[in-house]
UniProtKB/TrEMBL annotation:
<keyword id="KW-0285">Flavoprotein</keyword>
<dbReference type="InterPro" id="IPR006093">
    <property type="entry name" value="Oxy_OxRdtase_FAD_BS"/>
</dbReference>
<dbReference type="InterPro" id="IPR016166">
    <property type="entry name" value="FAD-bd_PCMH"/>
</dbReference>
<keyword id="KW-0274">FAD</keyword>
<dbReference type="InterPro" id="IPR016170">
    <property type="entry name" value="Cytok_DH_C_sf"/>
</dbReference>
<feature type="signal peptide">
    <location>
        <begin position="1"/>
        <end position="31"/>
    </location>
</feature>
<comment type="similarity">
    <text>Belongs to the oxygen-dependent FAD-linked oxidoreductase family.</text>
</comment>
<dbReference type="InterPro" id="IPR016169">
    <property type="entry name" value="FAD-bd_PCMH_sub2"/>
</dbReference>
<dbReference type="InterPro" id="IPR016167">
    <property type="entry name" value="FAD-bd_PCMH_sub1"/>
</dbReference>
<keyword id="KW-0560">Oxidoreductase</keyword>
<dbReference type="InterPro" id="IPR036318">
    <property type="entry name" value="FAD-bd_PCMH-like_sf"/>
</dbReference>
<feature type="domain" description="FAD-binding PCMH-type">
    <location>
        <begin position="68"/>
        <end position="246"/>
    </location>
</feature>
<keyword id="KW-0732">Signal</keyword>
<protein>
    <recommendedName>
        <fullName>cytokinin dehydrogenase</fullName>
        <ecNumber>1.5.99.12</ecNumber>
    </recommendedName>
</protein>
<dbReference type="GO" id="GO:0019139">
    <property type="term" value="F:cytokinin dehydrogenase activity"/>
</dbReference>
<dbReference type="InterPro" id="IPR015345">
    <property type="entry name" value="Cytokinin_DH_FAD/cytokin-bd"/>
</dbReference>
<dbReference type="InterPro" id="IPR006094">
    <property type="entry name" value="Oxid_FAD_bind_N"/>
</dbReference>
């Protein structure tokens, strides 16, 4: 299924020449400069199985973050891998005299223009419908999918075979290429690792336009580079995703804690036990009222009388969110198993809420919120999200400062907090994590109201994020950003730390002209424009 070709080798001399060019940082002045250039006639005259569009490309200059709007010169809607490789190759062949860059765009759910290309070419990966999903059953089942495929489609198709991918994101209307370029972390990551752990093979178009198949056995360096590689080393055109037998139902459970120490102790216990839940997450609740009443539309209190008496007003609460998968014929056993697992935990007993939903409804849960928010016009608003990876040994210091002094309420959006255990994750990828084995994903998922000047304004949320980030910069904390965003190369170097050398070396090997994913702002296109 995958088309193998030899991997690229650049000459040492050309690499050395380009090292200096790559070192220049991109800045906002460049992005907003009036330098106007168009796609070369070369490209405009190329023949594709799909098509290039030069007009009405507003969609490709937007993303979920809704804060960066960089207009491309052209958008390629590819119908074949060769469409992608030929346009990248053509731009590569233009050499250092060209300013053109290429951004693969998945579903455009980036936060700060990471899938955009100012006056460059955006490749709309969702148009790439090849290969058709193809399933392989057996001891280690998998599915081959296009890099532009949405996870929700993979879920539906896999279920027809009684199978499912193992590791997810909280929201499934994202593409394979988009999440694999980051990591894909959710409540299953403690068990299976992130999505980048659950891929057997990729087909990639490198920054010189070469089509390369890579895996743990073949072109391993490129495989590892691309996983978590922020789109810097190649465009993922196909992926082989690991599957497992699918459950049909899910027991979905929430319970509250008022003591952070008990909350994290229980979360860490659950992610380290051999017999545990299938999904472990959690979130913080600050200054919210009527919380349990809100849950009642979809969850049932275990003890309705006691739940009625519980008052959350004013307190900082921590909600453990866990799920156990099952099939209906096992339903008696599953209740016993859950009771036994719950008996080891120290949540506030009156706050135990449960729900039973289909596997699809559980995994696609955020889409329900999307539909409601869209109806109210609150989906396409600015999303100044901040995602952090905090070492377990520092999570109390972090919580004390951030939830105690900086972050005053969670009414602008959820704040997720849950631990994962890195010891089960794939080594050698481009993903940057804290050094400790156990660390927490802490995600501030705020939405800003465009016309507001109050606590839900973009300005207010950005100021709060800045305070959090400035606290996180204390070196002894060892905190890393997830879905990172920096504006100059010094900051990127600090982010990668000792991994920077490898990241840089890989860039020189696989995208020496820095053509790919300019919106990440790690490297600047090697050309005269950048050297000022
Ligand atoms: P895009 O935003 O289109 O692209 C992201 C980056 O990847 C860009 O740099 C782009 O150039 C590059 N890229 C895209 N396609 C390819 C490709 N085929 N090959 C190479 N590079 C490519 N993340 C989690 O880990 N866990 C979560 O639970 C989670 N929940 C989310 C919930 C919501 C509502 C949203 C909006 C995002 C969430 N995310 C989560 C973040 C999400 O994983 C990233 O934003 C991801 O990049 C989005 O995928 P996309 O297909 O929209 O990618």
């Amino acid at each position: 299924m995958f088309n193998s070709q030899s991997s690229i080798q650049k000459t040492i001399a050309s690499k050395l020449l380009l090292i200096s060019l790559l070192s220049f940082m991109i800045n906002k002045t460049h992005l907003s400069s009036n330098n106007s250039f168009t796609v070369s006639p070369h490209i405009a005259n190329m023949k594709f199985d799909g098509h290039l569009s030069f007009k009405n490309n507003e969609n490709e200059s937007k993303d979920f973050g809704n804060r960066y709007h960089l207009i491309p010169s052209a958008v390629l809607h590819p119908k074949s891998v060769s469409d992608i490789s030929s346009i990248v190759k053509c731009i590569f062949d233009m050499g250092v005299n060209s300013e053109l860059t290429v951004a693969a765009r998945g579903h455009g759910h980036s936060l700060k223009g990471q899938a955009q290309a100012y006056q460059g070419v955006v490749i709309s990966m969702e148009s790439l419908r090849v290969p058709e999903m193809s399933f392989h059953v057996g001891k280690y089942p998998y599915v081959d999918v296009s890099g532009g495929e949405l996870w929700i489609n993979i879920l539906h198709e896999s279920l027809k075979h009684g199978l499912t991918p193992k590791s997810w994101t909280d929201y499934l209307h994202l593409t394979v290429g988009g999440t694999l370029s980051n990591a894909g972390i959710s409540g299953q990551a403690f068990l299976h690792g992130p999505q980048i752990n659950n891929v057997y093979q990729l087909q990639v178009v490198t920054g010189s336009g070469e089509v390369v198949t890579c895996s743990d056995e073949q072109n391993t360096d490129l495989f590892h580079a691309v996983l978590g590689g922020l789109g810097q080393f190649g465009i993922i055109t196909q992926a082989r995703i690991a599957l497992q037998p699918a459950p049909r139902k899910v027991k979905w459970i929430r319970a509250l804690y008022s003591e952070f120490t008990l909350f994290t102790k229980d979360q860490e216990h659950l992610i380290s036990s051999t017999n545990s839940f299938d999904y472990v997450e959690g979130f913080v609740i600050i200054n919210r009222t009527g919380l349990l009443n809100n849950w009642r539309s979809s969850f049932n209190p275990k003890d309705p009388v006691q739940a009625n008496q519980f008052t959350s007003e004013g307190k900082i609460l921590f909600c453990l969110e866990i799920a156990k998968y099952f099939n209906p014929e096992e339903s008696n056993n599953i209740d016993q198993e859950i009771d036994s697992l719950l008996s080891e935990l120290s949540y506030i007993k009156s706050t135990l809420f449960q729900s039973e939903v289909s596997y699809v409804d559980f995994l696609d849960r955020v889409h329900v919120s999307e539909i409601k928010l869209r109806e109210k016009g609150l989906w396409e608003v600015p999303h100044p999200w901040l995602n952090l990876l905090v070492p377990s040994s520092k999570i109390h210091e972090f919580a004390h400062e951030v939830f105690g002094n900086i972050f005053k309420d969670t009414s602008n959006g959820p704040v997720l907090i849950y631990p994962v255990n890195k010891s089960r994750w794939r080594n050698g990828t481009s993903l940057v994590t804290p050094e400790e084995d156990v660390f927490y994903l802490v995600a501030f998922l705020s939405s800003a109201i465009p016309s507001s000047t109050g606590k839900d304004s973009l300005q207010h949320i950005l100021t709060q994020n800045k305070k959090i980030l400035s606290f996180c910069e204390r070196p002894h904390l060892g905190i890393k950003q997830y879905l990172p965003h920096y504006i100059n190369q010094e900051e990127w170097k600090a982010h990668f730390g000792t991994n920077w050398e490898v990241f840089f070396r890989r860039k020189l090997s696989y995208d020496p002209l820095a053509i790919l994913a300019p919106g990440q702002r790690i490297f600047q296109r090697a050309n005269a424009f950048s050297i000022e």
